[in-house]
Design brief:
2 domains, alpha+beta, two-stranded antiparallel sheet, 60s Ribosomal Protein L30, Chain: A, 449 residues, 8 strands, 2-methylcitrate dehydratase PrpD, 52% helix
Amino acid sequence: MSTLSEELAAFVYGLKFPEIPTHVFNRAKLHLLDTLGVMAAGTAEPHMRSILTVVKHFGGTPESTILWYGGKCSPPMAAMVNGSLAHALDYDDTHLPSIMHLSSPIVATALSVGEALHATGSEVLTAMIGGYEVASRLGMAVRGKFHERGFHATSLCGVFGTALTAGKLLGLDPERLMGSLGIAGSFASGLMEFLSDGSWVKPLHTGWAAHAGIMAAFLAREGIVGPKRIIEGDKGLYMSYAGVRPSANDVLAGLGKTWEVMNISFKLFPNCHLIHDFMNTAIALKEKHGIEPDQIKEVVCFVDKLSIPIICKPLERKINPVTRYDAIFSLHYGVATVLAKGWANVLDFDISRGIPPETAKLIRKIRFTKRMENDDVIINIVMKDGSKYYGKRSDAPLIGSEQVMTKFRSNTKTVLTSYKLEELIATTLNLEKLDDVVKLVGHCIADKS
């Protein structure tokens, strides 16, 4: 009987670009473009300079570009910066069924390795999609179980996806692809303790997943083989980090038929995706009923049990955020911000600028309670005059490609001229026609200070 590693490796090995549906690779290109944009915006995060300093110190063979900053180093070191950069502001996409950030580590891996190997655009897209499909299913099979035990699914499962993304580009055979998964299991890491004090380590989870996955693939190419049951074994991924062992079908169902890349959600706000439905619904109610912030008496949010420890606790850090990460993971702060100003952008989560007085007042009016299963109502705004407005999850607007393009242009306008910005869009959206991904990476260097 085949192990999960064998099945997943066989899928990625056999994945061929002409067999991928057009709507799937078109969606992957849009996620690539979005990720390049949030990487550009991430250069404004001061902590990124620390990562850049360390990576430049160790360097390595200059084969892969450090995006937006410029300069080259070895593929795994470049991916460390690029993967962290994509998650620096928590503005990158999320696969909600698995509660994972997929594009940050996978795009960083595909571009760093792809550039070093002079891979074609279609080869990069194929490797990305293979990584998406594997990593997402590993997380979906035990949705929320990693988080409950204090582990970050993005980095735990992401490293398996990046190992296969890198291995696909390296042309590894099924045996070595499987070996890369066995090695990746020893690199899987990521703790959620940052929630307790708002420290800035979460972006390192995506950077490390990219770095470690590339290392696993290169080590496998040289003949190292990790445990074949690294995923389902008694001391493998699931039993060690989730405390449960899903069935093979839980992981493999729909592989190659149902494309999880289509279920990755774009972010329009630079904070935890679990808060976005509440923010979007609050905006919809504000606009529909002409709600004025000073007339609000109370806002009740009905939160899933799984989300409460992440976006509602510890309560003191949520209602009195001290760092950007406190604010990013605060339901209270996110909802108060959009009720106060109708939207939220990157600067709104920069706590060093101070909390606007109107937002601070609203934070104290927001409370949460556990949402009852199958109840679509997620927010109740009670006005001082006794009026009550209920918002459902379904009230949140769908995000289309136009909104993604607007976000991309906003994120890159400070680093690219208008001409080069549009040139990057055109190159990315026609990636499958590119004979060398170096041509795409070449557009991702800032030409504006």
